[in-house]
Automatic annotation (TrEMBL):
CDD domains named in the record: EAL
Gene3D superfamilies: EAL domain
Pfam families xrefs: EAL (PF00563)
InterPro entries, A to Z: Cyclic-di-GMP_PDE-like, EAL_dom, EAL_sf
Domain of life: Bacteria
Name assigned to this protein: EAL domain-containing protein
Location of the EAL domain: 6-255
Amino acid sequence: MQLAADNGIAADVAFTMHVIQERRVAPVLQPIVDLTTGAVMGVEALARGPADTPLQRPDQLFAAASRAGLLGAMDMLCAERALESALTLRQPPPLVFLNAEPAVLDQPLSARLLTMLLSGLPFRVVTEFTERALPTVPAALLDIAELSHRLGNAIALDDVGADPMSLAFLPLVDPDVIKLDMHLLRHPSAVATAEICGVVSSTARRTGARIIAEGIETAADVVTARSLGAHWGQGWHFGRPAPPIDLHLQDIATTDGLRPARPGQHQPTGSPHEVAAAAGCRRLDDAAARRAMERAASVIDGQRHAVVLGSYCTPDVLARWQPQVDRVSRLALYTALLSPDSEGTPFTGEGCLVVMTPNYSMALCHQNDGDVLHTEDPDEVALIGRVILQRLKPRRPK
């Protein structure tokens, strides 16, 4: 049995190396359409392995690459081939969407991919993340988001609603595009659908993000997607995934419809207290700070989408608020605290606590001398939260 398994892995390695060396990945492209005007806003590139082989399907292709220890190389190849394929279109649309593999998000870009991204492409590249990347490699996600914006490109959060984590991290990721998981379109009357779409629509109105509904197969689905708040749509109703040569796009949009890139948004500089001070957050005494944390605990009690982030450089810094910190941490879906014992490095001489839900935000930042800054502004809290996320180490599966 072991010999057979070893032979299988060896075969995976050999064939996967062949696919990578020969660049035998042939992406297919699927249009993304404005639900009001019918204009083609972009295409999503979907990976396909060598035709008529067991690795033609993307799940099999990436599974084999993972078994072979070549997942990073395969992910880079797929991204490169996606851009190359989009460039063969007679008239590329304004946006090209690429999928990022969460397990290797923290790898450096290949030289070829970086060269293409710097070459003045005739479209903006939208890098898609799923909720799997959010708790696993948050710092790498912010790195990619920052690089995307510095290059004038954009980011998308995919499969929103499929997992509570996607809504929990929505304010921190601040995507330019929010893609609704297709199960929401299939169950438009469900209570959970109304809750998720309400949060997403509210976020889009506040930030200017575009909402895409996936899985649109009929004209009735278009009506449903618009009722859920979607601006754009994707699915067989508008076209099946096809090789570039077989993709006949009509009524291509002349502008991309996205907000401008915002370099610096995903990697603010300074410590949490410095960012809070620069934002003009108000000062509180210790008693008021404790009341603010009690309010945060009350607000997130029973919530399914709360995130708690924090940093403390010594046990004494945490001790002053230990009961309140313990309470909000127990209630949260996701908690990450930088401390002297954690893998991430805490911020010297200060402490910080960030609490976020889709509808509520709070940050407390204090120096060891007792200066406490407080804010409930969602944009300010998100900036402070990103400062902490930048120092979190990847959480690898055990």
